[in-house]
């Protein structure tokens, strides 16, 4: 079996040696190790994968790790079994391009998750869920029903033991209650290279401004709107010869790609959040 260990702590000598020695003592073999030091903040980050010939009792392993290493080095840490497929809920409104992309990757075996359900504040994309044989929940959201709608969402998430949420163009502001229940576990796709043009028609604004690139940004959702830790970004070139329709088409292509990359990084446990920034391991 394989385990992935994520660590960040104050930078100090002996961390890598101590962790790899611990793995050896547990009869494991280190097969991958990547580390980064934020010199300005004095923080050490590490992602380590290890392989064990015999089955590991995860709770026992965590208890030993905490007692022998984590407390000594003042670590923030997490350990994951590679064989575990996280449960990913998808929230969507009326745009289907990101939804189709994620479901196609899931269906082909490229995206190693379980998808217990798709949730929307509209009925428009129920047919997509039906095509992929995934349960679909319609939870309307209005100003008057927002609180009860979010309570219903939370109930569904807990009932299905969801690990993280992807907002695949879900056109509603997520409440603090949902964010508090899923910290650094709600992934959004933003139709701009943040920070960028705000408002309901960003591509129109970009067109009017005569920009030479457009982009997309995927980030973890925080209470501050569109200001969470950035996971993935990309851009494409545009020029005066492109129409607004071209901008939108190019933008949607970017949204699909960037969201997919961000989800893949999260699922592979390659993201670490610190001070509203991310460390992304290769």
Short description:
The chain is α/β, with parallel strands linked by helices and 282 residues long.
Any overview of this molecule?
This protein is an alpha/beta fold and 282 residues long. Helix content is 34%, strand content 28%. It is built from eight helices and 13 strands. The strands form three sheets. It has a seven-stranded mixed β-sheet. Strands 2-3-1-4 form a four-stranded antiparallel β-sheet. A hairpin with a 2-residue loop joins β12 and β13. The protein is globular and about 60 Å long. The two termini are 22 Å apart. The model has no long low-confidence stretch (mean pLDDT 90).
Strand count, sense and closure of the main sheet?
7 strands, mixed
Task: Count the E strands.
Answer: 13
Overall form? globular
Tell me what portion of residues adopts beta-strand conformation: 25-35%
The low-confidence parts are none
Number of distinct helices: 8
Rg, alpha carbons: 21 Å
List the helices and strands and how they pair.
Blueprint (H helix, E strand, L loop, with lengths): L1 E9 L4 H11 L2 E11 L4 E10 L5 H16 L2 E6 L6 E5 L4 H11 L10 E3 L5 H6 L4 E3 L7 H14 L4 E4 L8 H6 L4 E5 L11 H8 L3 E8 L9 E8 L6 H24 L3 E4 L2 E4 L2
Parallel strand pairs: 5-6, 5-8, 6-7, 8-9
Antiparallel strand pairs: 1-3, 1-4, 2-3, 9-10, 10-11, 12-13
Fill in the keyword field for this structure.
four-stranded antiparallel β-sheet, 282 residues, single chain, alpha/beta, seven-stranded mixed β-sheet
